[in-house]
Amino acid sequence: MRAKRTASSSSCLAPRHYDIREDAADAGIPIWKEVLFGAELLLLHASPVFYGLGIPRGDGSAVVVIPGFLGTDLYLTHLAEWLGRIGYRSYVSGMGLNAECPNLLIKYRLTETIDKARRHTRRKIHLIGHSLGGVMARSIAAQRPNDVASVTTLAAPFRGTVLNHSVLNVAEAVRQNILNEHAQDVLPDCYTPRCTCEFVNSLRRRMNGSALQTAIYTRDDGVVDWHYCRTGDQDIDFEVSGTHMGLVFNPAVYTVIAERLGEARTRRRVNGAARRH
User: Fold this and answer.
1) What digits encode the pLDDT tens for the residues 27-67?
2) For residue 17, which of 202, 244, 277 has the smallest C-alpha distance?
3) β-pair partners for 125
4) Which of 122, 195, 197, 260 has the fewest CB atoms nearer than 10 Å to its CB?
């Protein structure tokens, strides 16, 4: 499975990345394909990339990985350990089950992890998020441009909540639970694109600073509408074959991540040299 950049034809470009659909919608996609993610895991273990062969090595920078909706750090173990194996200092999110208000998770849990990674490495960090975790990663990068070197999203619908209908139903149940448990700490439209919290508002802004952006998606996604996982910029968007869940085990994804982290390192050196002169 090889990754390819999004074609430049205007007919297939997404709207500008700070435009967000402000309603939730049924994507009308079959979720059954997601059972095939196990094949991607098998292919990963058979790939030289998984063992650090033929890809750029890391420079000891911190990489924080963030799980998706209803996920925990556990299913990102392969990705986190691989990042450490190729030369990065990897950190899991430490936020537990991703079934809470993203604004509160960022404020009270992810911020702690990011601050720790910054202290340990004394340099900007990289963020990698899967699905909802990728949306959160982009929000953090927009809020903290001086702390983030790159942000990579894997099947993250950061432009709109357009999902398989069964996932929409579960998300609504999670939303009601959030409102019941945190009524005093969240807005009435919490867990919807209409919310006006900092988490959602930051997604509507252009991402400032020098953070290198990467958006990886698959047209075979059975959970989210892949159209909403792209920025519309062919230099940022990368298409791979695979499932929504399987992207965290996908060898083509790992190759893109290694190459883009390497590009972020080169960019940092160039910018640093420019400042010295």
Assistant:
1) 999 999 899 999 999 999 999 999 999 999 999 999 999 99
2) 202
3) 148
4) 122
